[in-house]
Design brief:
The protein is built from 18 helices and eleven strands. By secondary structure, it is an alpha/beta fold.
Length: 424
């Protein structure tokens, strides 16, 4: 168990220290969501500061590591000190006007690790970086990972799949995502909710359907009507799923990989359907219930692996199925920068096999004439178009109705959708 810190709660030093713990956990293989969940950071301002450093450092994959590799004569024996240095370098790069304050606070944070044994190292390395900054940045130009801030194998795949726009995809992946909202049309019209935002001093612009993008992100409790279910936070690209599947009132609908429930809820907001929502993870399945409760919606939520059809299916066919399958999540990397550290190229083959198995199993629960929407938040072709091509060969009673590929852009993350119909 980590000892409590003696650093002031409003200090940059404490933010750097806590962010270092998160960064070290991610680099050791833990997801960013898990690392942030176990973090003890109150008040909210401290948590926001920790998140800024942790997310920002992880987005700059390869950049901080390149600098440390140039400035260190040997490896660091303590992972939390290395993570602290990555966080401090991020702050120095993004807040150069506060350079000496950042160094001072990073040294104070180092005093809380390993009995303060690395304070001198942290001080010396960061000051050395400030002296050599221009030289290091010039040298970085020749390092692909440090410049593009993505793993080398990832860049190779992007260049091959998108030779004309890979650099734009990389740039979006390295940026901060917008705060996108979905208005609950059962509670309020989009135009009326925009009025409520303006009255609350918030500015937003509408996109297609129920999607809005806030000019500046705010805490959820600052959103009018959030607690009452008027609005949900959801990327505009993710909102396309419900509109494409477009269930009709009275139909039986399955969301097979549903947690945390954003797409489940959107489908229910669009039509009065009999909804079944599955997720293999019990903790994540509880989030589906929580989200539906806030929005005033109802569904049958079950903890189950959708591939194990005999364990959860009652034999009644579904009119529509959403298969939002596990994937590399390469299209949402700006929201989940830990993916750059956690994914391996070999994972793509594993995901492709899993996706194919899910598709084949879910096809058996779909009624003749029913529609299945295959969805990923990946931009790798093997998980998207190539997966659907192989499925159509395996299933001669399947016909593809449409395909939509959303590459990451400023207004939305990256998604792939393929709508399929089963022969009647």
């Amino acid at each position: 168990m980590t000892a409590p810190s003696t650093l002031p709660a409003d200090s940059l030093a404490l933010s750097l220290l806590l962010a270092a713990r998160v960064i070290a956990d991610v680099r050791a293989g833990q997801s960013l969501t898990q690392a942030m969940t176990t973090l003890s950071a109150d008040p909210a301002a401290l948590r926001a500061a920790v998140q800024d450093v942790a997310f920002g450092s992880l987005r700059r994959y390869g950049c901080g590591e390149f600098i440390l590799g140039r400035l260190l004569t040997r490896g660091l024996p303590h992972p939390q000190i290395e993570a602290l240095l990555l966080g401090a370098l991020y702050r120095l790069q993004t807040r150069p006007e506060a350079a000496y304050m950042v160094v001072d606070q990073a040294v104070a944070a180092a005093g809380e690790v390993a009995g303060g044994a690395f304070k001198g190292l942290v001080n010396g390395l960061l000051r050395n970086y400030l002296r050599q900054r221009q030289t290091l940045e010039a040298a970085m130009v020749d390092d692909d990972e440090a410049m593009q801030q993505h793993p080398r194998w990832w860049l190779t795949r992007l260049r091959r799949a998108y030779p004309e726009c890979w650099q734009e995809i990389v740039a979006v992946g390295n940026g901060q995502p917008p705060m996108s909202l979905r208005v609950n049309r059962r509670r309020i019209a989009v135009a009326d909710y925009l009025t409520q935002l303006r009255m609350a001093g918030l500015s937003a612009r509408p996109l297609a359907g129920e999607a809005l993008i806030l000019e500046k992100p705010v805490p959820v409790n600052a959103l009018p009507g959030f607690a009452d279910g008027s609005v949900t936070i959801q990327d505009a690209g993710a909102q396309r799923a419900a509109g494409i599947l477009a269930p009709l009132a009275g139909q039986r609908v399955l969301d097979a990989c549903a947690a945390p429930g954003g797409k489940t809820a959107h489908l229910l907001e669009l039509a009065d359907v009999e909804m079944v929502a599955l997720d293999v993870d019990a903790h994540r399945a509880r989030r589906i219930d929580d989200n539906l409760r806030r929005l005033g919606l109802a569904a049958t939520v079950r903890v189950a692996d959708c591939r194990e059809v005999d364990r959860w299916w009652d034999g009644r066919g579904f009119d529509a199925v959403l298969a939002d399958v596990p994937c590399s999540a390469s299209g949402v990397v700006r929201r989940h920068p830990d993916i750059k550290y956690l994914r391996r190229e070999s994972d793509i083959r594993r995901f492709v096999r899993l996706q194919a198995e899910i598709l084949d199993k879910l096809w058996t629960v779909l009624k003749p004439g029913g529609r299945l929407l295959y969805a990923t938040c990946s931009i790798f072709p093997e998980e998207n178009g190539a997966q659907i091509d192989a499925f159509l060969v395996r299933q001669p009673d399947a016909r593809q109705l449409s395909e939509e590929r959303l590459l990451p852009r400023n207004d939305h993350d990256g998604f792939f959708y393929a709508l399929l119909r089963k022969a009647a």
